[in-house]
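re the bet — no i am not wrong, look at it urself. input seq straight from the record:
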Amino acid sequence: MDSAFSTISKLLEKLPGIGPRHAARLVLALLDRPQAELDELGSAIRDLKKRVLQCRECFNVSDDGLCAICRNSRRDLKSILVVEKVTDLEAVERSGIWRGVYHILGGVIAPVDGIGPEHLHIRELAERVDRVLQQAGSVELVLATNPTSTGEMTAMYIRDMFTGTPGVQTTRLARGLSTGTHLEYADELTLKHALDARK
C-alpha cells in the first residue's frame, strides 16, 4: 500500500510540468507549512470549479461569468486577439500593449490527437464575430496561435472560415528573427516568417 506521501506526490504528478522529483519537493514544502495554510489550500482546491468560472465571452478565467477584460469599457471590442490558452492571454497582457479583447480557443486543431475544430471555441468565435459585426460593422481578428504546425493549421482554418466575410479582417502576428540571432542558426519557419514580415 502506498504511503500518504507517495499518494499525494502521484496526484501532483498529474499536473502539467510536474515530474516525480518536483512533486516530492512540493509535498515536502507543504509539510513545512502551518496546518491552517494547508486547510485553506485544501478548501480553495475543493471549491476551485465552483469559484473559478470561464468568461462567457472570451473563455478567460472569471469569478462571475465575465472577466475583467471583457467588462472594461475602454477595450476595443472590434479588435480580437485569438490565442490558444489563458497563459497566452496573460503573457500579452503583461506587455501592456494590446488594447483590444481576446478569444481563447482552448487549444489547437490536432487531428493526430483527435482534436478537431468542434473541440475548440471556434463556433463561439464565429458567433462573437457576428455580434460585433451587427454592432460595429467591422472586426479585426489577430490570429496569435503559436508558430507550431498545429498552431499554423488552426490559424489557417480560422482565416479560411472568415475569408470573404464582409467587414472581417484576419491578420497574423508577425514573426521573425529576434535581436542577436544569427541567420545560420535560424530554422526554416523562422526565416520564412522573417522574410514574409519584412518592412
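see?? The longest strand covers residues 76-83. told u. also The mean pLDDT is 90. so pay up
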